[in-house]
Prior knowledge:
The chain is mainly α and 309 residues long. Helix content is 77%, strand content 2%.
Amino acid sequence: xxxxxxxxxxxxxxxxxxxxxxxxxxxxxxxxxxxxxxxxxxxxxxxxxxxxxxxxxxxxxxxxxxxxxxxxxxxxxxxxxxxxxxxxxxxxxxxxxxxxxxxxxxxxxxxxxxxxxxxxxxxxxxxxxxxxxxxxxxxxxxxxxxxxxxxxxxxxxxxxxxxxxxxxxxxxxxxxxxxxxxxxxxxxxxxxxxxxxxxxxxxxxxxxxxxxxxxxxxxxxxxxxxxxxxxxxxxxxxxxxxxxxxxxxxxxxxxxxxxxxxxxxxxxxxxxxxxxxxxxxxxxxxxxxxxxxxxxxxxxxxxxxxxxx
Length: 309
């Protein structure tokens, strides 16, 4: 990394133009962020405390919740600080750290949701083989592969971005992105854009294909079963379907938004950020907490036990 470049801060000009909306945005993000943080951690604690929930689906759900915490925590505190102070700036190193964690966050959510779809496929379509296929060791191995591949690909993107020599240092967006930094470079480079697009395809298009394929098989199987079996299958699949559609839509808009020029309405900046980094980490545990009967029962059991004590 060029040392002369790294010492020059990157200034976010959008914050100073929000005016009276600053305080309202701070309250909104703070409430959503703290709420999402608490709900996700409660969900993780409930699953960890209840031994009967130590099954593949719930292990994946814990990782989904922790990924949401990492994603929102990598951007929300910085944005709240930027909204409260007079000078909104970040070092290049700080931006690159944010790029790393936001990339890992987006990839983790998609990949874990894909593993959850596979878990539902095995559970419904191959119930007799479920315990031999979805063993704890295999689930841990799949998760380790997801984290390793996503961390490595994100590290490569950060490395490529860090080598750029910057001639400009002002951006009109809420947070750092590899393309945001690339647009500040002294010369045009397509490598980062192409690499980022390839990564997006691998963690969005390919997982979407696998999830759709899983549900095609699931629906083909449950259509041949009784009404009661269909209802039970849909109860276990509905939370996942809602979470996946929500995050897929948010990611689609995020990818399109990142490839637009800086001249986009401020409302689009805010909506894209909230829709990708704030809503999914808050919505996912609420959906699973409401829709999954075992989690509701576990929460009620823990609350009763604490009340009796």
